[in-house]
Structure formats: C-alpha cells, structure tokens
Amino acid sequence: MHALADTAPAHGGRRAGVVAWLLLTPLALWLVLFVVVPMLGLVVYSFCQRDDLGRVVFEFSWENYARVFDPIYLKILGRSIGYAALTTVLCVAIGYPVAWYIARQRSPLRERLLLLVMIPFWTSFLIRTYAWIAILKSEGLLNGLLQFSGVVAAPLSLLYTPTAVVIGLVYAYLPFMILPIYGSAEKLDNALVEAAHDLGAGPIRAFSHVIIPLTWPGIAAGIMLVFVPAIGMFAITDLMGGAQVPLIGNVIQNQFFRARNAPFGAALGVVFTLLFVVTYAMAHRRRRTTTT
Amino acid sequence: MRPPLSPPSFRVRWSGLRLLDVGLGVWTGLVFLFLYLPILVLVVYSFNESRLNVVWEGFTFEWYGRLWDDTRIARALKNSLVVASFTTVLSVVLGTVGAWLLHRYRYRFGSTLQTLIAVPMIMPEIVMGISLLILFTTAGLKLGFFTVIVAHTTFCFPFVLIAVQARLQGMDPALEEAALDLGATPLRAFLLVIVPYLRPAILSGALMAFTLSLDELIVTFFTASAQVATLPLLVFGMAKVGLNPMLNALSALFIIATVAFVLFSEHLRRLGRRTP
C-alpha cells in the first residue's frame, strides 16, 4: 500500500519536500537574480534621472518617457518597426515556399535539404553579415564585377544604404523563418488539402483557408524569431547601414555608452519590451482563434 | 459509352500542381543559392593574395598564417573558449538538475518557474543586455569574465533544460523505481540511472549552450569589458572598419567549424533517436 502511494505518476510527480526545494533553490535563485531583478531594475532606471556626469540619480520622473514620444525618437521607433516588418514579410514570402517544398519531400532528401537550412541557421550572423560587406563594399565583389564588365564606370555606393540594411536583415533571419514553418508544414496532414480539393476548393482557396491556418503556428513562431529581434538588432544596421540609418537598437546602445544616459536607454528598453509583449500576445491570439 | 475513368479537369489540375512543384523546387534552389553564395565567396577569397575582394591574384595561405600570429585574435579566442566552457558546465548542471526536479516533484509556483525559464529564451537580446548591465553596475560588479559567464548562462541553461525535459517526457517511471527498489539512494539513482538515460539530450543541450555562447554578440556587448572581449566582439569591431583579408580567413574557419558542428549534432540527434 505504502509503496503504491509512493510511486505516484512521474509526470507532475509527488509533492516537493524540503530536500527537493533546497535542490531547486539554485535554479530559482538564478532566475530571480538574473531575470526578474534585472527587469525590475530596468523599470526603476527608466524613471530615474542622470546628473551632468552621466551618473544615475534616483529621483522619480516621467521625463524619459516623455522624451520617447519626441518626434525624433518616434520616427526612429517607427522606422525600426517598419524595417523589421518589411524583413518579416520578405522572410515569410521567400521562406514559406522553401519550407513547404522541403516538408513535402521524401525522407532522405528532406533531411538533407533541412541540413542545408541548418548550416546558415547556426553560422554566426556576424560572419554572414560580413560576407555581404565583402560583396557590397565599393571595392567589393559586386562593384568589381560591374566595373570589370563595363556596366558602370565608377563604383556604386551599395553599402550603407537602406537596401543594404534590409538585405542584411533578411539574409540573417531567413533561416529563422524557414525552420519553424517547416515544423508546421511537415505535420500538416495532406488528406486535409486533398479534402479541400475534393470539396471544390481551388488552389488559392485551399491555400488561404486550409494551408495557411494549419501552418499558422509555424508562421507565428517565425514572426517571434524574426520581427522582435530585428527591431532591436543594432549590429547588422551598424555594419550594413553605417550610421546612416539609426534604428532603435542603435539608439539604446548609444545611451549606455556614448551618450551616457542610461535612464533614457532604460525607458527605450521598457518600450521595446512592451512592443515585444504585444507582438507575442497577438501572434498567440491569432493562433488560438485559428485552431478552435 | 462509359465515361472516361478520370475527368479531363483532373489531368489539368494535376499538371498544374506538377508545374507548381517544379516552380517550388526552382525557388528553393535559388534561395539556397542566395544563402550559400555569399559564404562561399568569403571562403574562396580568404585564399586570395589580393587585399581586396575584387581581383583574384593567386592562391595563398598568408592570411591564415597572419591570423595564427595575431595576438588580439588569439586572446579573443581564448576568452570566448573560457566563457563558453564555464557557461556550458553551469548550464548543464542547472538545466539537467532543474529539468529532473521539475519533472519528478510537484512544486508550488512550478508553472510560474516554467514560464520564467522560457523568458530568457525569447526575450530580445538587447533588453537582456541592458537590464543585466544595470544590475551589474548597481551591484558594483566590475564587468569581466564573471559578468559575461553569468549573462551567457542565463540564456543558455533554458535550452539545456528544455532539451532534457523533452527526453524525460518519454521516460518510463519504472526506471527510477527499479533503481530505488534495488536499494539505490535517490542521488545514486539520479547519477547512475537517470543521467545516463538523459545523456543524448544533455549532450545536444550542452552543444547548443556552447555554440550559443560562442556566437553571442549583443548580450556580450553590454556585459563584457575590453579585457574579456570575445571573438564576436572583435569580429564586430573589425567588420565595422571594413574589408580585411584576415577577417576573411577567420570567417572561413568559423564557417567550416559550423558545418562540422551541424553535422556532428545531426549525428548525435540520430543516435538519440535510435536509443529508446
């Protein structure tokens, strides 16, 4: 009897005793100290002031948030969201057919194609961005080819343009869109698509009414992996855009180093976090309404 | 007269779908070209004698040789390896023990904890970077190895934990019971029975933590000092200046290492699937 009571189902397990709690303490403490406390600290900082030397003064004020709504910063925020949205749309448009195609292949070929997505996925985005610098720079490959073939006389300035930024972002994030969509497309039961055909749906209707809703979890996961990071990504915009196209990530980074205005940087960080939460909630709500 | 077995419209639709399939295949090929061509160009030009990427002036290993002699790169590589090693060990311990405890016992606030574990995985890196920077400066900690390792472990250990949790879900509870019935203490059962069972998940989690740490730029940017600058920080600084043949060579090495890593982890994954 006693033994039976002891072997409760492992999932969920038995109630944690003192020892189990003690063992869990390092993990819980780590999460509190390095996830919860820093987030609270960020919020506290965002309401602080700084003195002339850039030191933080703990004095409550809304000033940093008022400054976020300054037209200059609103414009940068809008531009960041615009770039990230464009990147996300391009990644879906380019990546969806690829994910779909790979998911429909037979086993050995499918795994091999997937491996081809994994390699850029795991290759450092810095290296991959640098590869584009080598191509787009005025003394880079593309200009060399154009000049050599006589298309242009003088090198074009391809790098440090908005186009270069978008190319860099799409190139960096494309694998992060393909993989989750593949995950959904692979699980999709082909019988459902055939049923739609049999019931008289044309390819477009089948796509918009059956395939898209069923692969939405993958698209939503892809949006989370592309849209949110792309908003705050300052490294790619630094490298591909020079200082020409400052995005919100560049501004935040600046506040903590060159401008030495950590409280304002914190306020921007809080706004960014809110944006992230809203995106997350929206991606998940869509998912819930489509699966029920 | 009997109607034809398949209506003509069927054939039309079929050939239309077939055409779509070919189109998708071509598109996929083009996308792979887009993904791989820049990387390949980089690798090829790392052997170019010319300092610029435009003209091919001959094959050379010169840049690799210079890379080897460069003390800055050697130090950044050493820093990266130190950080990634400590991060991996800490992540494996926190992740494995945590996954086991959350699987085996029922905690109050267990689901809150589970949510908190997911936060560092999905939180924007820049927010994590600045919030940790604020914590470290407020606590009066000097930025260095300690701060970078803490930051890296925070976003790496959840990946180990999730990987281990996935494997635990398929585990037969009798495995631990048998060990306990045979007289093993819970600690011995964990170390001698559970951990070996979890080994594929621990290994792939560790590999992931190591790579994530080695690759990370944004969080490191905010939590490292110049003395402990990691390889990505150095590469970022070099790439900002522009083309650099040494950076071509370094990138080529990175790419080759990544390919090896992906193939190795794929191998691990297959092994993990084979053993029940």
Strand content range of chain A: under 5%
Q: Count of helical segments of chain A?
A: 13
User: Which ranges of chain B are low-confidence, i.e. pLDDT below 50, for 5 or more consecutive residues?
Assistant: 6-11
Termini Cα gap of chain B: 59 Å
Helix and strand sequence of chain A: HEHEEHHHHHHHHHHH
What is the compact description of this entry?
Chain A is an all-alpha fold.
Task: List its salient traits.
heterodimer; A: 292 residues; mainly alpha; MetI-like fold; two-stranded antiparallel ribbon; 13 helices; globular; B: 276 residues
Characterization of this structure:
The complex is a heterodimer of chains A (292) and B (276). Chain A has 292 residues and is an all-alpha fold. Chain A has 2 domains: 46 residues, no CATH class; 229 residues, MetI-like fold, CATH 1.10.3720.10. Chain A has 13 helices and 3 strands. The N terminus of chain A is likely disordered. With 276 residues, chain B is mostly helical. Chain B has one domain: MetI-like (MetI-like fold). Helices cover 79% and strands 1% of the residues of chain B. Chain B is globular, with a radius of gyration of 25 Å. The interface between A and B is large, with 91 and 88 residues.
Outline the secondary-structure elements.
The complex is a heterodimer of chains A (292) and B (276).
Chain A lengths: L1 H5 L7 E2 L2 H29 L2 E2 L5 E2 L5 H6 L2 H33 L3 H16 L2 H12 L4 H8 L13 H26 L2 H9 L4 H30 L1 H8 L6 H9 L5 H30 L1
Helix pairs in contact in A: 2-13, 4-8, 4-10, 5-8, 6-8, 6-11, 8-10, 8-11, 9-10, 10-13, 11-12, 12-13
Chain B lengths: L7 H38 L16 H8 L1 H34 E2 L3 H13 L2 H14 L6 H25 L4 H8 L4 H30 L2 H6 L7 H11 L3 H30 L2
